[in-house]
Structure formats: structure tokens, C-alpha cells
Amino acid sequence: MNAAATLTKKDFETDQDVRWCPGCGDYAVLAQVQKLMPTLGIPRENFAFISGIGCSSRFPYYMETYGMHSIHGRAPAIASGLKLARPELSVWVVTGDGDALAIGGNHFIHAMRRNIGLKIVLLNNGIYGLTKGQYSPTSLLGMKTKSTPQGSIDRPFSPVALALGAGATFVARTVDSDLAHMAGVLKRAAEHQGTAFVEIYQNCIVFNDGAYDAITDKSMRDDTRLMLEHGKPLLYGKERNKGIRLRGMEPEAVTLGENDVTESDLLVHDEAAEHGGLAFLLSQFDVPTLPVPLGVFRDVSAPSYEEMNNELHADARERRGRGDLASLFSSGDTWTIV
Amino acid sequence: MSGAAAAVDIGLERRTAPRPVEELDSVVIRFVGDSGDGMQLTGNEFSRAIAKAGHDFATHPDYPSEIRAPTGTLFGVSGYQIQFASRQVFTSGDAPDVLVAMNPAALKTNLSDVKNGGTIIANSGAFTDNSLAKAGYAANPLKDGSLGNYRVYEIDISGLTALALKDSGLSKKDVGRCKNYYALGLMLSLYSRPLDKEEGDVRKKFAKKPELAEANVLALRAGYAYVEATEMFITSYRVRAADIRAGTYRSLTGNHATALGFVAASELSGVPLFLGSYPITPATDILHELAALKHFNVTTFQAEDEIAGICSAIGASYGGVLGMTTTSGPGMALKTEALGLAVMLELPLVIVNVQRGGPSTGLPTKIEQSDLLQAIYGRNGECPLPVIAANSPSDCFDCAMEAFRIAVKYMTPVILLTDGGIGNAAEPWRIPDPASLPRLEVKFRTDTEDYQAYARDANLARSWVRPGTPGLEHRVGGLEKDFLTGNISQDPLNHQRMVDVRAAKVAGIARDIPPTRVEGPAQGDLLIVGWGSTYGSIVQAREQAVAEGHAVAHVHCVTSTRSRRTSATSSSATRRCWCRK
């Protein structure tokens, strides 16, 4: 009997005390990941969780799998080496907005570019938590933090747009408070071949509380978020009567029934579009003018880096035979002294 | 074996030409020209011919960091020096006996190095007004008497090559490119080397371009014939074959030897090799060599930066393969934080620093041995790790294997220091029988009974567990860990214990290294203490001093296991230092 089939969430919990602040969004992500693992049909010993530095990077200590809590920003590079060395492992990177986008930005984009089989989960809380409250690359312009007492003059960027720009083949976004949605997105990421990137909007209860209220508050979230569904028109709103229409290259929010707008006028989501134009357009949506998209922005198929690397090895062996030390040593020009 | 007998054995025959042959003990020749003149190729080919004659040799390629500097400029000069001798050769030599200068810039930048009374062979055809001006000569040095202290041979290598190839149908540019083979022909003839072997090599080298092969052969023959036909050279020279240990040899650079040593470590342990690396001079050749060996268990990963180079290697080591990274000084600086992580994780890892001149970007193509203290001490916290330094190009092979032996046995990162000098220089390498090489034992733990991630064996090494092993799931990281479980611990006493045990583990490696060996008298005037690639220079200097009647001894350090906390340091020399002969 396959041992993987009998695993439960509990098998993925460690004996370590979880040391995030009470109420931190990270708890929800941990619980969803622990719930997801037994459903993937992968033996527990074949998972590895690699992280960098930051609140979210404590993650591996709480997963009863192989894992490494490494150094700031370098998790994608370490995970890339692990995945190349051991392609059969399911390798996950858990990171944050400072870890992945500031100090580790280079490794982040190059992992995507290569399409190496890592699952990269970015817990975006828009703040540096572990160092106690400085602005991050996703903090809003004007945000007052300990290092920006007059308000931030750093323009933030979108992790989703960055991933798309780097050529990622799977890009999704979810939010810590919507457990069902998070579970669905993580499952899709787990099943993707190549790099899968998931941004999770995560609330930092201490240093940036309420950052995502606009899209999580029950009273308004239906009107502020756009749940992406492949092949479906971009519809949202409590009454499901709002939608997104393109005017030239400009997206605009419209209401069905007003000004003769019908559902057929709306943009239809296509995760698998050959070029990432639509996904990039969606990555630029933000409140208050446009709803914030959640779900899978892009999911296209491309050979993974480790597959291509395996092919290089197979090809080299086919052409030259399995390497032999004696002939390697004496290749080239030799001479004999008697 | 006497020298004369050796000369016969290797097929060296006295020339039939009436020109007398002068016997020499050793010769230093430097080929210099524009970086497009093919001087590296000429030097390489000459070395191979010399090696086949049974000589020991050492080379020093010296090239500009610009890929193709403007023609004729002083900064575009590229050189290749070789010393060969009837005895063991330790360095590429100091002052050249012979300078082959392909243009005025090459003469100007190298003249001051040439031995007083030495020989200059100048390509007079390149000493045009234009190129003299580019080199900053107001008057032609071949004509103004300024070279009175040297034996100068003016040969219009450019013109004579063109003449030899006038019917070849090649473009003027291609004809110009053959002049290095003309120069090679000159030198082979002058040093009494046969031509036929070289002709075969040229045809093999240019097999895909037969018209160039034929042109180069013609140029080679023309240069060779020039020495025989003219009265210009009064004598030819011969260096007797060295008394070299029997065996099959090849010419090998240090970088190539390093790569072969790592592949050997992988094959002898049965564990795959992973190289994560970012291109940097003068280390990149190791990446090139290994990238071409994918029919072995070798994966190369050209990372996005130096940090990713070492980090990917750490990830690979965590995955249970032999992880390594290659770099040079500035790259080493970037890898520092990750090195600390590797010390903390106690995983096997090899970091090669092919040193170059520093600080900062420094002198990328020039040689310096100035990163030793960085290697031993250059990390935050108490962060000991063993450092190995190679002595010579072929020693890089042994050191690469030794680095992995230590890394795996002690579960530690190991720094291997070589440098651009021995990395690019070639010398004869006696090809070993793989069966004679020491096996490299690697044990992965699979036993789940009482597993503790930081429990240690008698060598204080923790066990190596491959992810994928059921029941041994565990977490490692850069935070200080509990002495036994490896869980995070901030306890001060535990920290002290961990600092002590990390230092003791590395210091204990000294037990595994043969005692320091002193070459020379037990008492005397001077003890020379050296490390790394200065070996050859020190040996030669000591020999000279001893010949002059001084009592001088030499000790050479190869492995350092020093940490800031242990006074039990050991810088020990290994057997490798003196085993070449």
C-alpha cells in the first residue's frame, strides 16, 4: 500500500512551537499547506521546504518534511540546486516580500526565467515584520513606517507583474482569509510542471494591519475583487453584474445592462494565452478604479529546466557513452617516458 | 638513466646540418605579440613539442584582460613563457633567455625582462612606422643601436610568411594569421625539434579547415627551413631530456587538473558532482571543462550571480550530491555569507578560489596569492573551515580530490586555493591509473533509530541524510542549533558548545594530514615558509642558495585548519609537495 495515500495533515506538523504573532496570516497559510500535502500522492520524505529570512521564512520549521531555513533572499538559488540535484523531489520555496523582491530579487526572477520546478509561495504583507516595521518593495507610496517617518517615496511593484515579466509559466494570487480559494490555488501550483508562483496577500497584524481590508472585508469584498476563472468573462460584484471591458488597450469597469453593456462585451479570462499580455494587464488592476484579481493569472506549459538538463545528460551519454576516468585522463595529446 | 641515454631513448637525433649544437641545461623562452597574433597557440604548441622530447617544463601564459585590444597597442600585448630543462622544472623562469617579439609593442613591454645578453628574435616586418608610433618608439629600436646588449635576430616573419603562402589563395588576413606557425617553425628548428610530429598535429587541429591546415604547415616548414638555410644562427641549441619518472604524460593546466580531480572524486565515490558557478576570470575554465563532461555524473549550473553559484551548490549538497562552486577573489567576497551558512549546516561543499590580483576588481588576468587570510578568517562569527592550497598545475588534481575527501569525511565546506598562475599554466602530468587512486567513501544515513540531526561521529562529523529517506525528515538552517537535535537554540551555553565543537572538528582534521616536512638541513641560516603556488619559486630559490653554499630549508603549507579559537593549529605539508619526481 502506498504510504503517501494514508498521510494526514497531522503527519506534516512538527513538534516545534509556532512562533508567529497571534492572529498572523501565516497560520492560515501553514494550515492550508499542511492540509494540501497529503492530497498530492507524494511520500512525505520527498518534500523539501526551503526558505530565506523573515517571518514567513520560519515556515520550514513547522513542516514535518525535509527543509532548510537558509539566508536572506537566497532560497530560490538553494532550492534550484536541490531540484537540479534531485529532480524527483517536490521542492517548495516559502518567502516574503522583502526576502523575494528586495534582497533576493535576482534569484527570484531567474528561477522564473528558467522554469525550474519550484513552487514559490510569497507571503506578501507589504512590510518588514521581523525587523519590526520598515517599508518593503510592495509597501504603498506614502506609507509611514519606522524607516519612512514622512511617508515612503519608493514606488511599489507588483510581484505578479514581476513574475510575468520574468517569464513565469504559472502565476497566481490568493489571500490568507479565503481558505477555500487558497487551497485551490495551492493545489494548482503543486501540480504545475516548472516554476509555479503564488502570491498570498497576508495580513501583518502588528505592523501593517488591515492592509488588505478593501478586498477582505465582507461588506465590500465582492465589489473590490475579481475572481479569475479560465474561459469565463471577467465578472464581479455582489450582484455579479459588474465586469471588465477593453477600450483599446485600456480596461474599464462596466455594469451589465447600463449603456447596452452585455456579458458578451466583457473580457474573457484565458490563463493559457500564448503571450502574457492579458495576465500582465490584470496584474495592474487595483482598487479603487478596478477590482483586484485573485486566482490563476497564467498557466502555460513549457519544458522545465530539470527536464531539459536531464535530456542534456541523456544525450551526452548516448553520443559518448558513460564517462570513463581512464579515457578521460588520457584524452588529448599524450607521450610516454620509458 | 644518464642524460645522453635518455636523449637517444626518446628519439632525439643530432641534426645533420653542419651548424654546431650547443648543449644547455635550461632555457626560458617568451613569445610575445599582439593579442590577435596567436602567441598562446604558439607557446602551447612549442610546449607540447618540448614535452614530447622528454623535458620537464612549466609555462606562464600572460594575456590582457581586454579580449581583443586595438592592434599594435602596448596594452594589447599577449605573452607565453616557457621554461624547459634537463632537470626538474618548478617555475616558468624569471628573465627570458629568448624573446620572440612579433611587433614593436611586444618588444617594448617585454624588453626589460630579458636577460642581459639574451636573444631577441624580432619580426622586423611588423616594425613599420605606424606600429612603431603606436608602441611609442621615436626611432626603430632594431636600427638605432639601443639593443646593443642583446643578440638580435631580425627576421621579417610577416613578409616571409606571406611569401611562403603567395600561392595559397588565402586572403591577406588569413595569411597574416599563419605567421605564428612560421615563428613556431623557427623555434622548433633552433631547438633541434623534429618537424614531422608538429605537421601532423597542425593537420589534426585544423581538420575542419584543410586549406588553413595546409597554409599553417607551409608557414611552419618555411620557418623551420629558414633557420637551416640561412647563416644567421651560428648554432642550434639542445637541452638534454630530463630524468623524468617513467609513465604516460600529458600537458595539463591547473584549471583543467582541478576539473579532472573533481570528476575523479565523483567517480571514486559514486556520488554525482554538482557545480554552481558564475563566470569569472581566471576560474571559468573549470566551469568550461566540467560543462563538457555530462556523460559523467556531472551537472553544471551557470548561476545568475556568485551568490547563487554557492547557494545552488549548498542546495545540491543538501540533496546528497557533491556540491561545489568555483570563483576568484571578488566572487569569493560575495559568497561569504553563504559560506557561513554551509559551516552552520555542516554539509560537504568545496569552494575553489582561483586567486587573482586584488583588491576589488584588481588585476583579473594577473597573478597574486593574496586571499589566504580571507579564506581562513573572512566570515562573520566563529566560522572555521579547512583551507587547502595547491602547489602546481598538476597538484590541483590531487588537491581537488583531497578537498572532497575532507568535505565528506568531516561534513564541512572546504576552500581550495589555486591561482591564475597555476590555473592557466601547464606542466607535464603523469597520468594516473584510476584504480590506483584512493576510494572516496561516502555514507548516507538511512537508519531511523535514534536519529538526531546534529549527533556526531568520532570525527565530530554529523551524518549526511539524503532527502527522500523515509523517517529522517529534519530541518536545518542558519540559526544556531541545539547541540543534538539541530532545533533552533538561543541558549548561551549551547552556543558555546556549538562554537567549540565546530572549531574542534575542523582542528581535528590536522590529525588526518601527514606531518609538516622540512626540505633541507635541520639547522641553518634560513627557513623559508611558503604556501600555494609559490612552491616552485621557493624550491628554485632554495636550490640556488644551497648551490651558493647557504644552509637554507623550506617548509610548505598545504592545508590550514586554523580557527580563531584554537591554538592547535596546523598548517601541514602533505606528501604531495615532494612527490612529483
First-residue to last-residue Cα separation of chain A: 64 Å
If helices are DSSP runs of H or I spanning 4 or more residues, what is the number of helices of chain A?
A: 11
Which runs of chain A of at least 5 residues are low in confidence (pLDDT < 50)? none
Q: What would CATH call the homologous superfamily of the largest domain in chain B? A: Pyruvate-ferredoxin oxidoreductase, PFOR, domain III
Number of strands of chain A: 12
| Most extensive interface between two protein chains, with residue counts | A-B, 60 and 72 residues
CATH structural fold name of the domain at 3-211 in chain A: Rossmann fold
What number of structural domains do the residues of chain B give?
3
- Unreliable sequence segments of chain B: 1-17, 563-581
Q: Oligomeric state of the chains?
A: heterodimer
Quote the CATH topology of the largest domain in chain B. Answer: Pyruvate-ferredoxin Oxidoreductase, domain 3
User: Which class best fits the helix and strand makeup of chain B?
Assistant: alpha/beta
- Helical fraction of chain B equals 25-40%
* Helix/strand order of chain A: HEEHEHHEHEHEHHEEEEHEHHE
- Tell the overall outline of chain B: elongated
Strands of chain B, total number:
22
Largest sheet: spatial strand order of chain A:
2-1-3-4-6-5-11-7
**In angstroms, what is the radius of gyration of chain B?**
27 Å
Largest sheet of chain B: 8 strands, mixed
